[in-house]
Amino acid sequence: MGTQTFKKMLLATVLVSTAFVGNAYATTASIAYGNTELTVVAPRASGVTGSFTFTDLYNLTLTGPSSFSAYVSEIEKDIAFIDGSGGLNTFNVYNISNPTFQYGLYNSLNQLVTNTSNLSAGTYQFRVSGTATGTLGGQYFIGLNVSAVPEPEMALSMLFGLAAIGAVVRRKAKTA
Question: How many domains does the chain have?
């Protein structure tokens, strides 16, 4: 594991706060601009038997027009062992029930955002939820990218600047 990856994981660990409510598990984290990659565990609380639901919330506060993308994938872990009679047994350490595993970006009005390529400034929440069925809970990988989108005025200024440079180069080419 590289030093930068370790630092990101350490920062994510510091940012993540966990709360247990009955059988439900919830995580809340704040995400900054740039790339964020996390391996997230929805652990089984003491005394909880059977499957349990979880919801993880990733809060984003955008200061200007931004673009958002996400990649989420379950990480299933099984362990195999040989029992006392020499038979091979396996048990599911981490698993999330596929039909219940879902995620999406929501705006401050609690509406699902379907176009994430040009978000306006404001508060958003990326939610991941599901039902964990593994012995120790569920586990998934999440990759988030938040990047600023140039405002139209800036793009227009850059276009005028490029046109001015082109005019100067063209004038020099004619006089040479």
Answer: 1
